[in-house]
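Progress against Task 2.4 (sequence-to-structure conversion) is shown through the following example record, which the project officer requested during the mid-term review.
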Amino acid sequence: MSLSTGTRLGAYEILSPLGAGAMGEVYRARDPRLGRDVAIKVLPAAFGVDPDRLHRFEQEARAAAALNHPNILAVYDIGQHDGAPFIVSEVLDGETLRERLRAGGLPVRKAVELAVQIAHGLAAAHEKGIVHRDLKPENLFVTSDGRVKILDFGLAKITQAELPSAALSALPTTPPDTLPGVVLGTIGYMSPEQARGLVADGRSDIFALGATLYEMLRGQRAFRGDTAMDVMTAILKEDPPELPTGERHIPPAVERIVNRCLEKNPGARFQSAGDLAFALEGLSSYSGGAASAVGGSIRAAKRERVVWMSAVALLALIAAVAMARAFRPVPLAPEIHVDITTPPTTDQVSLAISPDGEKLVFVASSDGRPKLWLRSMVTGSARPIGGTDGASFPFWSPDSRSIGFFANERVNRIDIDGGSPRALAVAPVGTGGTWNREGVILYTPVPDAPIRRVSAAGGESALLPGSQRGQPGHRFPQFLPDGHHFLYYVAEADTTARGVYVGTVDGPERRRLFDAEAAAMFIPPAHILFPRAGTLFAQGFNPVRLALDGDAAPLAEGVNVDAVGIAAVSGSAVGSIVYRIGSANRQRQLVWFDRSGKQVGNSLAPDSANPLNPALSPDGRLVALNRTVKGNTDIWLVDLGRNVLSRFTFDRRPEIYPVWSPDGRRIVYAALKPEGTGFGLYEKPTTGAGQEAPLLETSQNMIPQDWSRDGRFLLYMTTRETSGAWDIGALPMSGDSKPFPVAQTSYDERAGQFSPDGRWIAFESNESGHFEIYAQPFPGPAARTIVSTGGGLQPRWGPDGKELFYIAPDGQLMAVSMHFPVTGPTVVPTAPVPLFAARVGSTPTGGSRQEYIVSPDGRRFLMNAFTEQAGFPITLVLNWKPRF
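Structure tokens generated for the chain above:
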């Protein structure tokens, strides 16, 4: 939820954004009652839809507000805005401790000074019965005058007897319930008892403070590893590397305090934060290197005196332990559940964990533009990946270094270490990809087409052997360990044909494994996960015999499943899985808004069948759009007056992008050609009395865009033979009907729209490096004029042709006045003016989809808007154990 300047949240007026993260968005606001600036954090809407969770949040927020300590962020107020809770606090000027540590360790005196303040803040919280449980450098803020503020008591647990023992609230890395064997905290700073899923008290915070102080002194984390499990193992079983006491002149007393904080047994640590603060304050007489040198000498002498005395006993002890371990079974690591809250997103199924289990990629849209985000499972940090706007359905390379994804009608790849995305093949409505060790990528270019293959290095794509004309659509392929066989999903209304199949890239072999409502995900070494009736099931699967093994067992309730047949689940080769629960995503509804963004008239009920590309009939009574029902995408008609849906096309091929004729008697749309190689143009009478007829078929994809008001021309998009880039062409609707190019360059030209008088077209092109809106005379050729500033998609003309609308990258609907001088075919656009937040989003395949309609009088807009939905976290399961 992004808030614009001037928005009011109760008594508070938003001034400017301050930042965004996994736990919500933060804004500077003004409290006119007290005449002061405050910070407002708007939390994910998931908190507002769960009454119990909201109650616990409010309970803990009040407890945090009662702390009133100079080293704890002051909480002033709580409230709700459009169903999302928010919390009001003081405004801070400075930086987080994490930002300060990016340059390396701190001077010893400064590290101790900060640790003293942190300990005092924890002592005040513990006295009130509140344990932080997620203390780390990200949650510690150092103000410009050197004061420490502890932030986000979001993992705090109320421990006083009169409060619920499992109270939870705004949990950035936490499951919804406190259960035995469930981990709360951030890997790398959590205590051993947290890692084991045991009860955490104030001594867990002391362990986290010890890990933080160690990092301030050394400049490196206390517990490290190549994977999240390695870090967890280090916390449970290993001591951190010794501090560089001589090199950094760290006094022995400081080292002893750190070591005591990091004891594995809580009983061996400081028993209160107050005691720890007292011990740290006792170091105030520390005078630098001389004390360090003396302390180091004393420590070395003591070690020398005892080393020979203990050598024999130590060797005997080692031998005894080794023998005992040889005859003792190795205990299995506990199954660990961690909830990962992401920035806002309307695409809750596009996620994938890397094969090595160290990274998670997902789609989020914190700035209004959906893009890929990359999260490290080791550090817990997440960042957006540049160049991935509009991305969907990511999949990993086998070495976990690159990501494949769909955007801008292409299947693309990008290296996570840097660089720009590279388009590999045309995929107008891509539905899933997979990548093997031989550099072969399998992908589905449209929902109901056969699977194709392309090299990860680029080149020509090709159908797989055995792909036949008229085959049902194959979606979401996934390679099995041999790199030749793969699972895929067939979305059919006929349940005898629908289900999960296994195929091979080497021949026509195809075999149905079982009926399913969505695609299955293979989890090494021998399981698959799939959804059924909202429950995620685990099933044994032998990847050598290509056969199911045993019975399916439930894993999680309420897993998110998309209309195109994919569940929000992914797995790695190291025993980690991720999944996301929640209601169906991408729900949209047709809503009328006036130019100020105020809703007017009645809106249609939310539709979970992925409705896209609405087109208003000339008489304004009906909207044609494409919907996906039971895996099949067809054109449907919506009666706006009665809110009634009726199917317009019926076969199992996908039909998309409807365009009305000016007299309302015909609809042209794109449909998959019989041979399954791409989309052609087809038309059908709106009375339903006639049959579908091909209008234009070539070897390339063709997508209709607009029909001129005089009925003479149809604008369409088509892919170029050589590069696969999009061009705009025109098809005469009478005479010889020979099509001709209108906008054709080496870049993409898409989303063509006729002006009302038919003399101009508006379209989007990426010739500048990103998509902007252009206008040029029709039929041309003629010079084009750039209309948008800073990016734009989805152009639409006003009814008199004197105004042009488009969607800006931040999701705002923009209006541009268009002036046409009397002399020459030129246009002079004015500066774009924002009208309101459109909420239509950037669709997964880019801007060629049009998700809003301008009313005939130009005063209203029918938006195919996303409904407000709760943001559900992603659940990470480490050491997953099938329960068969």
